[in-house]
């Protein structure tokens, strides 16, 4: 599949001809981010499933929409576990509150976690050993992407949670024994999904969140960059269309997600 020149040009212009944020006191130093290819499957209003490829900046706010689950991750559905690569928009997944929701959108991206980008940034994965969080939690080893969040609160963040579990980035649980960082030097395909509402789902016996950009992640973007981002989601016309967060999230800063 080839990309229309207008789409590639729009993505390139968004990062080359304008600041990444609208705040003059937060300049972007160093090399501009590279462009990356993103794969998208989406459920359309008529029930059809569209498949498309997008060229967009290799920025965390974009990559996080695609980088939660590795190939082979098993999501709990009404018909039993289904591998993330086999799940399609229109399928339903079971959520933390016992209901089922339809998958509206699935994104994937292939990257090399251990290869630094133009700004020296890597995208580490997190390997979670079997039973790391209790019996069959997870049921077998899990490799989670850098954007994955677990419904749990590590000891170092409990003072922020008021005793309630939070959706916490998986790297906060790394202990070098049961939960470890890994930087493969070869390409890895990663995935994420959107439901109608932000939710917590069962993946390999652990409770992970579905995709939501956060309430403020796009607020400081330039209009050009925001347009490229929203073009990734057929079911979304503005940030408000993602709806509210299902529960509190740890380490949910807006600026880091845009320019880190």
TrEMBL record:
Domain Hedgehog/Intein (Hint): 67-214
Any matching Pfam family: Hint_2
SUPFAM superfamilies, sorted: Hedgehog/intein (Hint) domain (SSF51294)
InterPro entries: Hedgehog/Intein_dom, Hint_dom_sf
Protein name per its UniProtKB record: Hint domain-containing protein
